[in-house]
Amino acid sequence: MSAASPTPADVLRRVRLVEMRARRLVEDLLAGPYRSVFRGRGIEFDDIREYQPGDDVRAIDWHTTARTGTVQIKQNVEERCLTVMLAVDLSASGDFGSVPQSKRELAAELAAVLALSAVFNNDRVGLLIFTDTVERHLTPRTGRRQALAIVAAILGHEPRSPRTSLNHLLQTLGNALRRRATVFLISDFLDADFDRALRLAGRRHDVVAIPVADGAEHHLPNLGWLVCEDAETGELLQLDTSDSAVRHAFDVERVARTARLRETFRGACVDAIPCETGRPYHHALLQFFERRQRRR
After folding, report:
1. Structural domains of the chain in order of their starting residue, each with its CATH number
2. Which of 53, 151, 164, 175, CA to CA, is 20 to 30 A from 250?
3. Spatial separation of the C-alpha atoms in residues 263 and 287, rounded to whole Å
4. Cα–Cα–Cα angle for 100, 106, 111, nearest 5°?
5. In Å, how far from its chain's centre is CA 220?
6. pLDDT of 76-129, one tens digit each?
């Protein structure tokens, strides 16, 4: 179902509501698992101290040693600051929802949780809103204000196109992110022929796919004759849902599409966190963190 254009006051109210729910979840459950899984990929200088037996001699700072007359070493710590990019699909199919929450609203809440998790750990977080082109880009930054700007952008954005192109988005990542980053790709993945682009993006970045779905998309109910419109193409299709063969064909195609998508993620070595409107998603996030932690 399509929602009316939100007013600025409505967007602000929804942003505050989403942030409140997301902040509670991050503080209570996800801050620790996020930090343990997404660590820095380098080291940074912390301090200089006197050499102690057992220290790595390669860390000796010879200039300070010569100046002080005692052997001094450089003490480094793991670099914490990461770059996290949230790529969020706002094509027309995301406005669908058989429950009070649409797929777009679920995407916004997931983005808020991930953005706040990054902010709590002083990571940079940015946003790419896409349809069949990239319609908005927020450069990665730190801070709560950035997290709120991301949620407001998702909830308040009026897409210029109803269609989806994952190929275009994945190719754009190469230009938007010069260095390796963690990319959360939030979409219903109602697109085709993006396997190669996903594999290439997965080699350069740590890509995590978050497929969002609605429960009504899983089964075709027996409601007699229906006229269905494709939200992205405008194509109309008449279906006799009272025909068991029609419902069976729908189920077969849904199972096949799910299997193809799972194989696409596996072939690209991309982790996936399936989420559904109207259902708690924190279990899926925690399971993902646990899988990552076991692999480490």
Report:
1. 8-38+81-295 (3.40.50.410), 43-78 (no CATH)
2. 164
3. 20
4. 155
5. 28
6. 544 557 899 999 999 999 998 889 999 999 999 999 999 999 998 889 999 999
